[in-house]
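Can anyone check this?
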Amino acid sequence: MNKIDKTDIENIKLLLNETKIENVSKFRIKKGEYEIEISSEQLDKSIGVQAIKTQSVKKSSEEKVEIETINEENIVKSPMVGVAYLSADPNSPPYVKIGQHVKAGDILLLIEAMKTFNEIKAPKSGVIKKIVALNSQPVEFGDHLIIFE
């Protein structure tokens, strides 16, 4: 499991300052899929902030935090523990790019596990919205890899 580092703490402080949350009563961090949950009681109401790596948090003019939800069927998750590779080799272009239309069965990326390269294929046709996995970085079972529109 990844440890929380100085950058994470700076990002948390920035999030608290931006949302103007005081008197934090609950705090939860999960770095695998990068999840942050902060709870506070202000004005006799519980105000919660949740941010997941695959979600974008936006601040509206009324100081409320909106969360963009992503349908679970649009997320390609890692079926295994290993190292993700976005291309066949360092000199090759990546299998997919943001905005690219892919068909069901197209190769999205590779995961190396026990010296075996496993092709991760598109479960459905669609357009790539976000590539969450980083090249040559470890992934765990269930980590988000690719998000479709």
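Reply from J.R.: I decoded it. Confidence is low (pLDDT under 50) at residues 42-63.
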